[in-house]
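Progress report, Aim 2. The chain analyzed during this reporting quarter is listed below.
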Amino acid sequence: MFLRRITAAVALTATLSLAADNASAGIQPIDDPPTFVTTTSFEAVWHATGAYNPDRDEFLYVASNNALISAVIFRADGTVRVPEFPIVTTVFGSTSGLDATGLQLHAVYNETEQEYLVTYQRFGPRSAAVPTTGRVYGQTVDATSGAVGAAAALDRVNSGDARCDARSHDVTYDPATGGYVLAYSIGMLFATTDACENLSGGHKTTVVPVSAALAPGARVDLPGTMPNSNDTFASIDRHPDTGQFLVGRLGDDGGRYTLITPSFDVVREHHVDNRNVTNGSFPAYVFVDVDPVTRNWVAVTRGSQRAQIMTLAPNGSVVTPSAIRFDTTFLGIGITDDGAILGTEYTNIGEYTMSGTKVSTYGPLVSSLGTFRSYDVVPGADGRVMVAGKHLNGNSTAGAATFLDVSRTRSIESFAPARFLETRPGQPDFDGQGRPGRRLAAGEILRLNVAGRGNVPTGAAGVVANITAVAPSGPGHVTVWDCIGGAPTASSLNYTAGAVIANEVIAKLSASGQLCIQSFAETHLIVDVVGAIPSGSPVESLAPARFYESRPGQPDFDGQGRPGARVKAGATVRVKIAGRGDVPSDAKGVIANVTAINPSGPGHVTVWDCAGKAPTASSLNYAAGTVVPNEIIAKLSSKGEICLTSFADTHLAIDVVGAIPDGSDVESLVPARFFESRPGQPDFDGKGRPGARLQAGKTVRVQIGGRGDVPADAAGVVVNVTAIAPAGAGHVTIWDCAGKAPTASSLNYAAGAVVANEVIVKLSAKGEICLVSFADTHLAVDVVGAIE
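Predicted C-alpha cells for the chain:
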C-alpha cells in the first residue's frame, strides 16, 4: 500500500482551476498547467480513451462522437506532440454512426511495431446477406503522425442474423507474437430468442489472435454462455511474466474471470456475484489488470453503485477473495507503476489501495468550459497518468485530457547519516542543536528535536536512527519513544558497563517532531539519523511493546509470548505477530528489536518467515554472557509469524516497534548474505567474497540492486552488518557512495568483538552501498529488505 501526492496538469481549451476546499490532503495542482486547443470535430464526444508509448514517453488520446474518431499525441508533461488528426471518418451501412452504448473504444501500444492500435465498434457488412451489423474494427496509428492504412474488421461472428453483433470488446498487445489478442462478446441487444449462434437470448465471450497487419486468426470461445445479452462487457490483459491472459466477462449476476494460456486453453475460472453489493445495484462493467508491484492479477467487478476487487496470483489462484471493497463506482481504472489504483469517478479521480481503501480524491475538475467528465485512466512512467474524458458545458461535450502526477510518498525515506545528538564535550553534531555537552543522567528524559532538521521533513511521522550508548556507568538499557506518557517498558538498546554499543531503531515522533530518550544508567549518547517515515507512510511506527520474553517472571504485553524458559541451541521458536496489539492482522512484515540475554556461548540468532529451514544469514550476533540487541525488519509468514533460532542457548526478548502492510514499498526479504570478507565463507551468489579483511579507512563498494531478490531500481536497502574480530575499537559507516563517508557511525565495535547492527541505507544510482571501517576488520553484510 502506498500513499502519494497527486498533482495535475489539465489539457483543456482553458486553464482548469480546482477549488481548494475540494482537494484532499496532500493533493496539489501543478502550476501553469499546459493546455491544448480543441476543434469542433471533438464536439459531442461520447467516449474517450488512450494508450501509453514507453518508447517515447508519450500518450495517445482518442475520442469518438457520432461519426468521427479523432486523436492527439501528448508528451508526458501534457503538451501536444502531434495535433488532432482523424482516425475514422466514415461509417458503413448506417446513418446512426458509431455504437456508443458502453465502453466501445480502446487503444493499445505495440512495442514491436512501435505503433498504436485503436479498436472500436461500428456498423459494417459481415457479408452480402448481412450488410449492416455491429462489428469490432481496428485502425493502426503511427507513433509519430496519424492513421496508417485502412481500418479492418477483427471479429469472427458466424450468423446470418443481421442483429447478431460482436459487442463489447477489449484488446491487449502480445509481445510473444508482435500482434494482439482481442476479446469480445457475441449476442443480440435485448434479445430473448434469436438465431445468433444458438445463444437463446444470451451472450458468450470469444478471443481472437490478431496479427500486426490486422489479420484475425481463428477464434476460441470461452466456456459457457451468460444471460441478458445487453450485459456483454469484456476485458483482457496479458501477464508480463507468464504470457497468459486473464479475460473478464459480465453477466446478470456479476463477473467471470477466466485465465487462459497463450494458446487459449482454460487454466481456471472465478465467479464474482455482484448483485448484493448494494441494494438496487446491478453489474455494470469488468476490468482486469496486472499490479506492477506484486505482479498479481487485479479483477474489478463494477456495480452500478459500488465495485468489488479480487486479486489473483499469476497462476490464477486467489490471493484476496472478492468482497465489498470500494465505496463508490467508476467508469474506468488504471494501475500506476507503483501499484496505485486510480478510478474515474465521473468528475473526480479516486486513488485506492489494493484492499479497496480510498487514499485520496482529486476533483471535482471544473474549467471555464464546464465540468470535466473522466472515462479512462492511462498509466505512464514514474507515476504519471493521463485521464481521458470530456468537458461539459450545456449541450457541448468537447474532448479533453487530464494529466496527473501520482508521486508516491515512500514508506521510508533513506538518506546519508547525520549526527543529531552528541553528548560528549567537543564532539560535533551536524547543526549545533544537539550538543548538551554532558552525560545523560540515569532516568533523565531527553527531548530531541528531529522533524524539520537536516533531511527530516517537518511533519514526519517517524524517524530511523542509530542510537549509541558510550561508556555507561552500569548495565541497563535505553528506551526511545514519541514522548507520549512515560517511557514504555520495552527497550531500544541494551548495554553493559563501559561498553560502546549501538542499535538502529525506527521510532515514532511526537506531534511536535520530537523523540524522547531515557537511559537506565548514566551514559553518553549519540543519535545518528539515517531516514524518516513521512506523514501518511503506510509503514506504521508503533509504541514499543514486548511480544516475547523467555525469562521467567518477566512480562510481555498480553501474556501470549512468555514460555518461561531459555531458548535451546538449534531449536526453532515461532512467535505470533500479526493480529496482536497494534499490529494489523494482514501485516506482511514487522519491525522488531530482538535482544539476546546471557547466551551460553558465542553465536548468532537468525530471524525469518518460517518458510523452510533457517537461512545461513544472521540477524543478531552475540558473545557469551552478553546482553545484545538488534532492530530488525522481518518478513511474516502467511500465518503472521516469525521464526527464530539461536546458535547457543539464550534468553530472548522481542519488542515490536512497527508494522509493514501489504503492498508497501518496503519489502521484507528472506535474509541473504551479499558480502563476506572471511576466506572460505560463502555468500549467496559468489559475487561478494573478497577473501580479505577490510583495511582501516579503505572504502568498499558492494553491489546490492539487481542481485537476488533486490530490484534493480530499488531506492534503498535494509542490511544487517556484522564486524568480526576488529583490530581495535572503532566503527563502520555505511552510505550511498555519494562523496566522502559521513561522520556518523552505523556500527560500533570493540577490539576482537563480533557485533552486528541492522541499518537502512540509501542505494547509489548504480545500486551500490559503500562501507568504511575505522579499524581493520572482517565484515559480513546480510540483506533483509528493500525499499523500492
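Residues 1-37, 91-103 have pLDDT under 50 and may be disordered. The chain is about 0% helix and 50% strand. These observations will guide the mutagenesis work planned for the next reporting period.
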